[in-house]
Amino acid sequence: MWVAKFKLKDEQDIYSPLCEKYKIDFFAYPITNFKKNGKINLIVAGDIYGEEKDKKKYLRELKKDKRVKSMERIGDFILIHAIHPISRETITEITIFYNPQYIIINPVHVSKDGLEYWEVGCLDRKELMKIINAAEKHYNGKLFSIKEEKISSVSIVNIFPNLTKKQKESIEIAYKNKYYNYPRKLTIKKLAKIVNKSYSTFQEHLRKAEKKIIESFLKIA
């Protein structure tokens, strides 16, 4: 399998300008696409990350976009049905990104810096070059790497499986404050103090979150 890693910036995109505006990270996975009534319909799912107040603003403005036909939200997971004119899609060659020969190895990271980070696999190197060329030609794309390798897994969007809001917040706080760095320089007591939570409560939420993630990863839940 040939695997390419690259970034791009789409000024006309639905998500990336808002991610940059509200400092949101959106890990998106294109589920499917189809043509109907002369337009291209896209179904995208993913998780959003950021401050709660910023997420609310992001979703509020996202709903106002005329291209968004519908949006469902459960916690930080969103499912979006968007519609684009075929003319725009054809002109920019964006339909190359929907090529069924491609495997989206990890969710597309629509970052708060306004860029999209892609990791795409394909059995045919020449076919894979088409998406790279389109990214460079139309979206200021930059290729990080392209190489032949064996894929050990494919990630969709279930990054934080079945976590409660408090569990998710706890593990995000731990990660952002480099609790998982080695050597570890921060204790749970210090983390709890940073967010003004009791040690026992914060530890409970963090440990339960870690347990769920490990169980999901090992598929023993």
Explain the overall architecture.
36% of the residues lie in helices and 29% in strands. Strands 1, 2, 3, 4, 5, 6, 7, 8 and 9 form a 9-stranded antiparallel sheet that branches. It has 2 domains: 2-148, no CATH class; 165-218. The protein has helices spanning 16-22, 52-64, 86-91, 125-138, 165-176, 188-194, 199-218, and strands spanning 2-8, 25-36, 39-49, 68-74, 77-85, 103-104, 108-110, 116-122, 142-148. Helix 1 (16-22) runs antiparallel to helix 2 (52-64), helix 5 packs across helix 7 and helix 6 (188-194) packs across helix 7. The chain is α+β, with helices and mostly antiparallel strands and 221 residues long.
Keywords:
single chain, 221 residues, alpha+beta, 2 domains, 9-stranded antiparallel beta sheet, 7 helices, globular
Low-confidence stretches: none
User: β content, as a range?
Assistant: 25-35%
By DSSP (H or I, 4+ residues per run), the number of helices equals 7
Integer count of domains = 2
Helix content: 25-40%
Shape: globular
Q: What's the gyration radius in Å?
A: 19 Å
Mean pLDDT: 87
Question: Structural class of the helices, strands and pairings?
Answer: alpha+beta
